[in-house]
TrEMBL record:
GO terms for cellular component: acetyl-CoA carboxylase complex. This protein is a component of the acetyl coenzyme A carboxylase complex; first, biotin carboxylase catalyzes the carboxylation of the carrier protein and then the transcarboxylase transfers the carboxyl group to form malonyl-CoA. Keywords: Biotin, Fatty acid biosynthesis, Fatty acid metabolism, Lipid biosynthesis, Lipid metabolism. Coiled coil: none annotated. The keyword S-adenosyl-L-methionine does not apply. PANTHER family: OXALOACETATE DECARBOXYLASE ALPHA CHAIN. GO terms for biological process: fatty acid biosynthetic process. The keyword Hydrolase does not apply. One of its GO terms (molecular function) is acetyl-CoA carboxylase activity. Pathway: Lipid metabolism; fatty acid biosynthesis. This is Biotin carboxyl carrier protein of acetyl-CoA carboxylase. It comes from the Bacteria.
């Protein structure tokens, strides 16, 4: 699926009022979620053009998601998890020559930018919704992340 088809699908989802659309094809899966109130529709979304997808991204993401999930199972009951609000590429700093937004041991407050997630050439600053101290960074810099994937463990203060 090329970028134009993905953009058309996103526009369709936002106009239709549905809350979530999942499309799965050979070596390619995409889920688009909105913050709208759910409207339940049972309909197939036809794709007009043939789809040619490179299996690189779908193969790499699950391989990196598994270690993050395993790390999160270590006695983390007293920690709050900051999760990825979207699919994209995780960056710890605004550019390679700039310092990281946060490091292990840093205290953060609500609204503090903790990372950037790049999705379709848009760089989205991810702000903390909790206050506390960064205990662990669960994702490597410039790694692909999935929706709802744990990024940071925070000890509440």
């Amino acid at each position: 699926m090329d970028i134009k088809q993905i953009q058309e699908l996103i526009k369709f989802v936002s106009r239709s009022g549905v809350n979530e659309v999942s499309l799965e094809q050979e070596n390619f899966k995409i889920t688009i979620k909105t913050n709208q109130n759910p409207v339940y529709v049972n309909a197939a979304v036809p794709v007009a053009a043939p789809v040619v997808a490179a299996p690189v991204a779908p193969v790499a993401a699950p391989a990196q998601a598994a270690p993050a999930a395993a790390a999160a199972t270590e006695d983390t009951s007293k920690y709050i998890t900051i999760k990825s609000p979207m699919i994209g590429t995780f960056y710890r700093s605004a550019s390679p020559d700039k310092p990281s937004f946060v490091n292990v041991g840093d205290e953060i407050g609500t609204g503090k930018v903790v990372c950037i997630i790049e999705a379709m050439k848009l760089f989205n600053e991810i702000e903390s919704e909790v206050s506390g101290r960064i205990v662990k960074i669960l994702v490597d810099n410039a790694s692909p992340v999935e929706y709802d994937q744990p990024l940071f463990l925070v000890e509440p203060i």
